[in-house]
Design a protein that fits this description.
binds adenosine monophosphate, five-stranded parallel beta sheet, single chain, about 200 residues, Rossmann fold, alpha/beta
Length: about 200
């Protein structure tokens, strides 16, 4: 079994590539953004709190986000067979917490797939996604804030995982299938073909 973090800026293709990785390796998908959007759709208290941060392009506070993930890992049985974490961790404290959350379940993180996409392409992709899906935070003002947050709070994780020898850098601009093939090659190399 594998636990993988899919890492990258907003708009880098995490959702698209997650779906393909899950199919290929039989893993469970946890997107913290999707978990939060589901709460917003259902109008829960947590959804109301989350919406205040998401609509400003800010991160949900670490403590709350870690609690939510802990809960999702307990409730979603399929997580025991290996997970693709999409959108988590986004800060160093979240990365430290992920290590503990997995250790307490007798497992660990095997690899971090980092999708590396030039900034102008990220903006274009998010604008297009906003038009197609109506996703509320895919508007130019919020996109700019999310990219700032990414640079300041999330990008330091790249070095964090390079130091842990878990980071696989992937050229994330180009054709979806070519990017995916590169991910599979690098993952198999890293994990010795272990499923
Ligand atoms: P995403 O769908 O991953 O782009 O996430 C959309 C929004 O949800 C982000 O801009 C954050 O406001 C919030 N969010 C998702 N994951 C996290 C996380 N791990 N930590 C804090 N906020 C998050």
């Amino acid at each position: 079994m594998l636990n993988i973090v899919l890492f990258g800026a907003p708009g880098s293709g995490k959702g698209t590539q997650s779906a393909k990785i899950i199919d290929r390796f039989g893993l469970h998908h946890i997107s913290t953004g999707e978990v939060l959007r589901d709460h917003i759709r259902r109008g829960t208290e947590l959804g109301k709190t989350a919406d205040e941060y998401i609509s400003k392009g800010q991160l949900i506070p670490d403590e709350l986000m870690i609690e939510i993930l802990d809960d999702v890992l307990d409730k979603e049985e399929a997580a025991k067979n290996g997970v693709v974490f999409d959108g988590f961790p986004r800060t160093i404290p979240q990365a430290e917490a992920l290590k503990k959350l997995l250790a307490k379940r007798g497992t660990e993180l095997h690899a971090v797939v980092g999708l590396e996409v030039p900034e102008d392409e990220l903006v274009e992709r998010m604008i297009a996604r906003g038009k197609e899906t109506g996703r509320a935070d895919d508007n130019i003002d919020t996109i700019k804030k999310r990219l700032d947050v990414y640079h300041n709070q999330t990008l330091p994780l790249r070095d964090f995982y390079i130091n842990e020898d878990k980071y696989l850098g992937i050229e994330g601009a180009g054709k979806v299938d070519d990017i995916f093939n590169d991910i599979v090659d690098q993952l198999l190399r890293k994990t010795g073909g272990d499923k």
